[in-house]
Amino acid sequence: MYLLHTTDLTLKGFYGEIPRYAILSHTWDREEATFQDVENRRKDGLENWKKVKGACARARRYGWDWIWIDSCCIDKSSSAELSENINSMYRLYANAIVCYVYLSDDPKYSRSHFQYSKWFTRGWTLQELIAPTASVFFLDRSWKEIGTRYSLRNIISAVTSVPVKLLEDGDLTKYSIAQKMSWAAFRKTTRREDRAYSLMGLFDICMPPIYGEGGDKAFMRLQQEIIKTSDDHSIFAW
Residue ranges of the Heterokaryon incompatibility domain (predicted)? Predict the structure, then answer.
C-alpha cells in the first residue's frame, strides 16, 4: 500500500510491515489530487490539493507521520492495484489508527445539522463509517471538530439506519444480510458497479471489479459470492 507522509507530502510504498497511519474519509469533488499529481508535485490550479494538505496537517498535529487518502494513495492507472485496494478497502479503514471524516460541502456544520452532508448519501462512506476500530472524528470544511462517531452515534443512527449498538461495538456478526443491505439501499455511487463493490467489505467478500459490466451484473456477482460463504437466507428476502 502507498502512504502519504504528512510532513513532506511524498508517497511511499509499503509491502511488509505497515507503519501506523491515519485515514481520511471524504466525498469526491470533480477535481481531486491524484497519485500522479502527488508523484509529480503538481499542485498549481488544483483546488483539492488543499484537502490533502488539510488532512496531512490534521494528522501531523496529533503526531501521525503517515496518512492514507483514497484519491491520491491509489495508482489508478494500474488495474491490478485498483482491484487490490478495492478488495482491501474495508481492512484499510479497520486498521487505521484514527479516521477523519471531512465534510466539505458546508463550512458551517454544527452538531445538530451535520447530518445533512452528502457524505451520508454516498455508497463508499457506509463502510468507512462502520469499518474503523479506532476513533472516528467528524470535521467541518474548516477542519474544526464536530464530534466523534461515538458522541454523535444517535444522530448518525437516525440518518443512516445503522444501529447505535453497531456504532458502539463494531460487531457486524450480529446483523443479517438483509439488514446490511438495507443500510445501503438509498446510497448513491458515481459508477453503477460501485454500488456492489462498495459493499464487499461489509460481507467479507473479495471479487475482481469489472467496470463496464453494469450495476445489475456486479450486484448479482456480489450476491453469488455471499451465498458461497453464508447460509443466511435473509439474502433471498432482500
Answer: 21-108
* Residues 85, 92 contacting (CB under 8 angstroms): yes
Q: Please list, in sequence order, all residues whose beta carbon lies within 8 angstroms of the beta carbon of residue 165, skipping any fewer than 6 positions away.
A: 171, 174
- Which three cell numbers, joined as nine digits, stand for 75? 495508482
The verdict on 14 and 103 lying in the same domain is yes
What would the grid cell of residue 38 be? 502527488
**DSSP one-letter code for 143:** S
Burial of 136 (0-12, 13-18, 19+ CB in 10 A): buried
| 76 and 94 inside one domain | yes
The backbone region for 74, taken as left when phi is positive above 0, alpha when psi lies in -120 to 50, beta otherwise, is: beta
Q: What is the pLDDT of residues 35-90, one digit of tens each?
A: 998 888 766 556 678 899 999 999 999 999 999 999 999 999 999 999 999 999 99
197 and 163 together in one domain: no
Expressed as residue numbers, the domain containing 205 is 175-237
Residue 143 and residue 230 in one domain: no
- Is residue 108 located within the same domain as residue 125? yes
Q: Would you put residue 161 in left (φ > 0), alpha (ψ -120 to 50) or beta?
A: left
Q: pLDDT band at residue 132, thresholds of 50, 70 and 90? A: very high
Domain boundary among 120, 144, 173: 173
3, 73 contact by CB (below 8 A): yes
Long-range contacts of 83-88 (CB under 8 A, 24+ apart): 83/208, 83/209, 85/1, 86/197, 86/200, 86/209, 87/200, 87/206, 87/207, 87/208, 88/1
